[in-house]
């Protein structure tokens, strides 16, 4: 048992070193690109999780903004959040991106099956946002995605999300005051969103509340962070 715990600890230290200094988000990208191969029924479970309790807070916050016409989700998987948003915002243009091609295919199949032509889902990574024009969306959001972004990329990804939004950016992620350079916790990254966002966008109005996710590190770090531009 002691040897196993030591091996796990050394493995995490090695992963942190590689992600922070050598490979960036490469490991996480590989894990999510091929997740459907090693997590049984992940795509189906994702697609059917629209009504999970942990999708209510973030979608309610997004729906509460006035005159929302377009929303982009970073890391949408099979689009359960976008399906939940569709119930709250029946006429807005929805876009989602995800690294997993099979998840995007399943989500596209679903929206076609219900004749929803106001949804656009693309296969791409969180750091592939350069070809979107400034202020292309009213709201941009992520849920449990930035925890997989390495310190070498997090500032760029957040800056791009802010650039793309004309109204607000919403994060449901791990936050810790002072973790400007990232804290590696059980294979996930924790950041100080207040400091990172203030550095990039000093005029932003930033609010935080307890997330509706629970369990594990979510109980320690989980925050829903709303950035009003």
Q: What is the helix/strand order?
A: HHHHHEHEHEEHEEEHEHE
> What average pLDDT do the residues reach?
94
Look up the CATH topology: Rossmann fold
Number of domains: 1
The shape, in one word, is globular
Q: Name the CATH superfamily assignment.
A: Vaccinia Virus protein VP39
SSE order and pairing:
Blueprint: H1 2-22, H2 26-33, H3 35-38, H4 42-47, H5 56-64, E1 70-74, H6 80-88, E2 93-98, H7 101-113, E3 119-123, E4 137-143, H8 151-164, E5 165-174, E6 183-185, E7 188-190, H9 193-200, E8 205-210, H10 217-221, E9 222-228
Parallel strand pairs: 1-2, 1-4, 2-3, 4-5
Antiparallel strand pairs: 5-9, 6-7, 8-9
Helix pairs in contact: 5-6
Could you walk me through the main structural features you see in this protein, from its secondary elements to its overall organization?
The protein is an alpha/beta fold and 229 residues long. The chain has a single domain (2-228), classed as Rossmann fold (3-Layer(aba) Sandwich), CATH 3.40.50. 42% of the residues lie in helices and 23% in strands. It has helices at residues 2-22, 26-33, 35-38, 42-47, 56-64, 80-88, 101-113, 151-164, 193-200, 217-221; strands spanning 70-74, 93-98, 119-123, 137-143, 165-174, 183-185, 188-190, 205-210, 222-228. β1 (70-74), α6 (80-88) and β2 (93-98) form a beta-alpha-beta unit. α5 crosses α6. It starts with a helix and ends with a strand. The model has no long low-confidence stretch (mean pLDDT 94).
What labels describe this entry?
229 residues; alpha/beta; Rossmann fold; seven-stranded mixed β-sheet; two-stranded antiparallel sheet; 9 strands; 23% strand
């Amino acid at each position: 048992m002691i040897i196993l715990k030591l091996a796990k600890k050394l493995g995490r230290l090695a992963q942190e070193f590689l992600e922070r200094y050598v490979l960036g988000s490469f490991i996480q990208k590989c894990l999510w690109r091929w997740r459907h191969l090693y997590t049984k029924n992940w795509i189906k479970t994702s697609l059917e999780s629209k009504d999970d309790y942990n999708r209510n807070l973030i979608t309610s916050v997004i729906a509460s903004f006035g005159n929302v016409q377009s929303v982009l989700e970073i890391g949408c998987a099979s689009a359960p959040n976008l399906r939940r948003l569709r119930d709250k915002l029946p006429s807005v243009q929805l876009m989602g991106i995800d690294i997993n091609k099979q998840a995007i295919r399943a989500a596209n199949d679903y929206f076609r099956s219900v004749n929803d032509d106001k949804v656009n889902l693309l296969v791409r990574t969180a750091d592939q946002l350069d070809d979107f024009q400034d202020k292309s969306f009213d709201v941009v959001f992520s849920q449990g995605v930035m925890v997989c972004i390495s310190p070498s990329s997090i500032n760029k990804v957040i800056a791009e999300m802010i650039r793309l939004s004309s109204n607000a950016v919403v994060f449901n992620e791990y936050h810790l005051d002072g973790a400007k350079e990232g804290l590696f916790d059980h294979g996930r990254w924790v950041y100080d969103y207040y400091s990172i966002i203030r550095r990039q966008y000093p005029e932003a109005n930033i609010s935080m509340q307890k997330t509706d996710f629970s369990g594990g590190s979510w109980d320690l770090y989980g925050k829903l962070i709303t950035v009003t531009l």
